[in-house]
Amino acid sequence: MDDILIIGAGVTGCFIARELSRYMTKVVVLDKENDVGNYSSMANSAIVHSGYDPESGSLKALLNVQGNAMYDRVCKELDVTFQRIGSLTVAVFDEQLPLLQELVKRAAINGVEVKLLSADEVKAMEPNVVDTVKGALYAPSAGVIDPFELCVHLMENAMDNGAKLYLNEEVVEIRSFGELYEVRTKKNTYYAKYVINAAGVQADFISQTVAPKTFSIAPRKGEYYVLDYTQTPLVNHVVFPLPSVLGKGILVTPTYGGNYLVGPSSAIIDDKTDLSTDVMTMNEVKKSASQLIKNIPWNKVIRAFSGLRATPSTHDFIIEEAAPNFINVAGIESPGLASSPAIAKKVVEEFIAKKIKLIPNPNFNPLVRPYHRFKETSEEAWHQLISKDKRYARMVCRCETVSEGEIRDLLNRNCAPHSIKGVKKRVRAGFGRCQGGFCAPNVLAILADHYHIKVTEVPYDEPGTNILKQPTKEVGE
Amino acid sequence: MSKLEQRELIIIGGGSAGLAAAIQAYDEGVRDILILERDEFLGGILNQCIHNGFGLHEFKEQLSGPEYAERFINRLKERHIDYRLKAMVIAVTRDKIVSYTCEEDGYVQVQANAIVLATGCYERSAGAIAIPGDRPVGVITAGQAQHYLNIDGYLVGKKVFILGSGDIGLIMARRMVLEGAKVLGVAEIMPYSNGLNRNIVQCLIDFDIPLFLSHSVSRIVGKEKLEKIIISQVDANFNFIAGTEKEFEVDTLLLSIGLIPNNYLLDNIGVIPSKTRGAVVNEHLETMIGGVFSCGNVLHVHDLVDFVSEEGRLAGHSAALYLAGKLKKSGNYLKTIPLNGISYIVPQYVNIDNIEDKVALKFRPVKPLKDIWLITKIDGVVVKKQFKPYLIPSEMVDVSLDKALFHSGNQELTLETEAKV
After folding, report:
1. Nearest 5 degrees, angle CA A333-CA A338-CA B127?
2. Sign of the dihedral through C-alpha A192, A195, A201, A205
């Protein structure tokens, strides 16, 4: 039996698991996917928002600002790519200038440092902003992060400190037996004293297994384009239009990796598994982005994708004890990524700590084992690394320059990848302009070798999503 | 750091262009040559092209891809030209310092006196054209499926549809059928095929595989695994026409939607690419960086390997001239300009002072053209007028111009088509 069971290994669940791993508690995390951070945490704007936007006084506002401030430390401890590049919320019509003033006031209430910029100042900072720019709100604390790496390193560190992770475990039923919860998945049954529901778009379903229905979660889809690296920067900051009822609007931003993200659209849909993109929406994304930034090189698109935000009927984050010892952490839509470290702290300090005596884990190590990244290592140091392990010389992915050594290292860690996509999310092999054209066969072979499975058994993502179906005919067949 | 190792000539890429360049440079006296190849074998993409049809121009016989490569590799080995396998070039600088990784050497920098870039091309991916719908497993570029099939020995699916009528897609259509898969059709967004005519005949018509022109995939369906695709007809602006949908239940969608020069090494140091997305070059295939030459598919995508080899030889020859100090650095530059009906011209510049005896211009038309005059002008004066019964974008064409047509002080050369009345 475990003390605490977390349902969902998205960024919220991962942060909570890591936070709890500081203490002498048995923590287990279940996720229905074949990897951590494989749903909403994987497909979003990858931005740590500053916090000027959420309605003052809301949990979103409070936790966003607190969470944002926690990112420097956690990214340093966990070796996660994070850059505070700042955001610009741009007015392109005169009528929008009063709205900027409102945002300045809101920022002051929320406790976010911002600065109002003139059109010329914006042009100097963003040469590609549209000529009609009237001014902008500059928020220096906004940053871009690698959300895949964040989830993985959080869970790796939680597991290094004793947490357990079970993937491909979709929870179908939860029952309460006095002091205990029985959590049944499609394959197994788990028992725990405390359950934390961090199930993202499915959090309403999970909550209703043990508690009355007090909220619902609507999947709100956002569609995006990824653009390849450019010779001169397209944008240097996260560039937003003015927010509307639909959200923060379609933004243009550099990613943590140096290429660009354009999106998201915003539409409430019915199907919580619908991650499709459609022509009309994608054209709308292009149109909106072009009203903000000129000269967007659409011929450099390397990917289109969509993600689902877990939009709560309550319009704010839901952090509550819905049933005895059953805690909902639900409706964590934007600014969920920015807020998640603060959410985890709140869950542990305000809920768990009141129930269990949390004894610090004397062996807790806040650091992950250092990662070797070709892109961030000097030539001399990499040369040395190769002399110890030749696999660091073999470049498996050209577009993102990832060596076999880096992938082998992942496989010998906690929270190791089991799929081609899992490798892609961790080291970016396959994220570049050729989208895995060169590296996928190499990654596939490495996974088959490491796990001693056939190449036809290596999944792209979920179990059963193998790329290779069967061997070709033998001679004489 | 210790003194940089020096090399006369570094050739980046050991495929058909790089092999031909190395052999030619050697035969013209260059001895200190190093080929850097990222794969486990020399020969590049030829290794996975096990069908025949290679070498009709080069060897006057039909060879398979590996056979074609082998002939060049043998010539290379006879000359004891140095090469590294599984060697990835990380960067080149404007001063011609090449940094690369490989097991033998580690991560090193080498100073080259000349460089031939022969890094080939890569396939445009599903992401690049943002096909609407889901993103399941089962959507894969034709070349990658060919790698899995011909190098690794595995099929990616049994019920296949192909988007794009590029040659790799056509060849894979036949190849998959021969391996027992069903190929339900090929959709091409253009109103004409983008593959060689012989491939349309031998790979589609002979196997009763329908070709849907002016069609593209309007929806991919399948959350985890591909279940079906919907194709729709497109209008002149490539927008889907409602009501023209056709559905195909397939487990695989192969993409043959274009090849892009793998010109990252020059892109990364701020060299502005040409319209082909390869480097801007002169008649000796020298890029804007003196002593750096580009050839083969990294310069512009070719239809036939024979012409890649030919271009590789020109690059090897040019590098040898450069190393012997026989290429003038400055000179009278003339610009080549594609006009009416012409999509691009390689080279983009001609250094009139360096012309040997002929200048070969390679180009493609913007669309299929019939019964036309192909007119070459220098500074507005017609210097060549040729009748062409047809020109199609899938077949590269060349115009050869005698040195005598060029004069010091010439500014521009134009190439255009004109309907024959």
Report:
1. 70
2. positive
- Of A276, A441, A460, nearest to B137 by CB-CB distance is A460
Q: Name the H helices within A33-134.
A: 59-78, 97-110, 119-125
Give the length of chain A. Answer: 477
Between CA A270 and CA A216 the distance in angstroms is 12
Distances (CA, A) of B208 to A217, A454, B304: 50, 34, 25
Q: Could you tell me how many CB contacts below 8 A there are between chain A and chain B?
A: 147
Interface touch B155/A471, C-beta < 8 Å: yes
Give Cα separations from A329 to A30, A61, A204, A323, A340 (angstroms). 15, 16, 10, 13, 10
Calpha distance A181→A171 (Å, rounded)? 13
Same fold, B125-257 and B330-421: no
* Residues of B in Cβ contact (< 8 Å) with A390: 103
As a whole number of angstroms, the distance between CA B94 and CA B83 comes to: 23
**Buried b / exposed e along B376-398 (16+ C-beta atoms within 10 A):** bbbeeeebbeeeeeebbbbebbe
Residues 6+ away with beta carbon under 8 Å from A356 = A3, A25, A194
Give φ, ψ of B305 to 5 degrees.
Answer: -65, -30
CATH architecture of B125-257: 3-Layer(bba) Sandwich (3.50)
Per-residue pLDDT in tens (0 to 9) along chain B, 421 residues: 456 899 999 999 999 999 999 999 999 999 999 999 999 999 999 999 999 999 999 999 999 999 999 999 999 999 999 999 999 999 999 999 999 999 999 999 999 999 999 999 999 998 888 899 999 999 999 999 999 999 999 999 999 999 999 899 999 999 999 999 999 999 999 999 888 888 999 999 999 999 999 999 999 999 999 999 999 999 999 999 999 999 999 999 999 999 999 999 998 888 888 999 999 999 999 999 999 999 999 999 999 999 999 999 999 999 999 999 999 887 789 999 999 999 999 999 999 999 999 999 999 999 999 999 999 999 999 999 999 999 999 899 999 999 999 999 999 999 999 998 7
Confidence (pTM): 0.94
Run of H or E including A379: helix A379-388
Residue A413 contacts B, CB cutoff 8 Å: no
How do strand A27-30 and strand A2-7 relate by DSSP bridges?
Answer: parallel
Give the chain B residue whose CA is nearest to the CA of A466: B137
- Assign 3-state DSSP to chain B and report helix, strand, coil percentages, each to 5: 25, 35, 40
What is the enclosing helix (H) or strand (E) of B169? Answer: helix B167-178
CATH class name, domain B1-121+259-327: alpha beta
Contacts of residue B11, Cβ cutoff 8 Å, sequence gap at least 6? B18, B21, B22, B25, B33, B34, B35, B36, B115, B116, B118
The domains of chain B are located at 1-121+259-327, 125-257, 330-421
**Is the CATH code 2.60.40 the one for domain B330-421?**
yes
Cβ of residue B106 closer than 8 Å to a chain A Cβ? yes
Nearest-CA distance B313 → chain A (Å): 26
Task: Quote the radius of gyration of chain A (alpha carbons, Å).
Answer: 23
Residue in A33, A271, A272, A276 to test binding to B, most B beta-carbons within 10 Å: A276
Strand locations in A313-455 (E): 318-323, 326-330, 395-397, 402-403
Q: In the block, which residue shows the tokens 């111009």?
A: B401
Given CB atoms, is A118 within the 8 Å cutoff of chain B?
Answer: no
The CA-atom distances, in angstroms, between A33 and each of A266, B16, B136, B318, B342 are: 24, 44, 15, 56, 51
